[in-house]
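re: the backbone from monday

yeah here it is again, tokenized this time
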């Protein structure tokens, strides 16, 4: 049986280590242990954190895709701990998104991927987002247009154009994620891209790119000559 955290030397306890060395000095398992340590009886919270990471091959993005029911499959994780973990990961996602200023200038597809990876890369469902740009390709607004299931989401071209006009955008970039891990655009992805491009041309609003995010990688329609 593993020692409880309270039985460890003070300098080895995750909370004390964080106070002394800062959060960056802790392992992923130790950070998770801080979230779930309350009430652990049969094993240390760090051991439980390690087991949780083993479930996802030590991939924090995969951890972010787990639901409460997924987390509860691990002995020692109940509703309270599962909700705590999910809430902490969601806060991290939102913090990363908030760090990206809306005044950023888009110079490449990587700039777009950097904005959307923190938001979309670990979702278990599809979401469709739009970046609205001015004539200098600076982001003036962004919004989630729709949310769907594992295999797709509905995209209304009329709503895309309506929101672009309301934002006084000169150009737009659309982005969605593939929870399946497959970066290749589907036939419906290609069709909706062409429809948005054609609708934008009529209103002098240029579709600059369509980015598909999956895991730590992305696919750019513009980079691949699909626009």
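seq for it, each position gets an aa:
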């Amino acid at each position: 049986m593993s020692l409880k955290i309270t039985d460890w030397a003070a300098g080895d306890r995750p909370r004390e280590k964080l106070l002394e060395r800062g959060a960056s000095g802790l392992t992923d398992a130790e950070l998770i242990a801080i979230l779930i340590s309350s009430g652990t009886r049969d094993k240390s919270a760090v051991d439980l954190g390690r087991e949780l990471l083993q479930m996802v091959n030590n991939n924090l993005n995969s951890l972010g895709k787990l639901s409460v029911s997924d987390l509860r499959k691990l002995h020692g994780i109940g509703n309270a701990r599962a909700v705590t973990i999910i809430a902490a990961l969601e806060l991290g996602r939102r913090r990363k998104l908030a760090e990206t200023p809306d005044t950023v200038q888009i110079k490449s597809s990587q700039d777009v991927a950097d904005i959307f990876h923190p938001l979309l890369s670990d979702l278990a469902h599809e979401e469709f987002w739009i970046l609205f740009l001015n004539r200098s390709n600076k982001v003036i607004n962004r919004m989630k247009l729709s949310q769907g299931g594992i295999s797709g989401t509905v995209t209304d071209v009329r709503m895309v154009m309506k929101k672009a006009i309301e934002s006084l955008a000169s150009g737009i970039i659309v982005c969605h994620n593939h929870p399946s891990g497959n970066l290749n655009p589907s036939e419906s992805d290609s069709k909706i891209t062409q429809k948005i491009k054609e609708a934008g041309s009529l209103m002098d609003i240029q579709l600059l790119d369509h980015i598909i995010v999956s895991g730590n990688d992305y696919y750019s329609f513009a980079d691949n000559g699909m626009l």
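Residues 102-220 form a domain with the Cytidine Deaminase; domain 2 fold (CATH 3.40.140.10). The longest strand covers residues 139-147.
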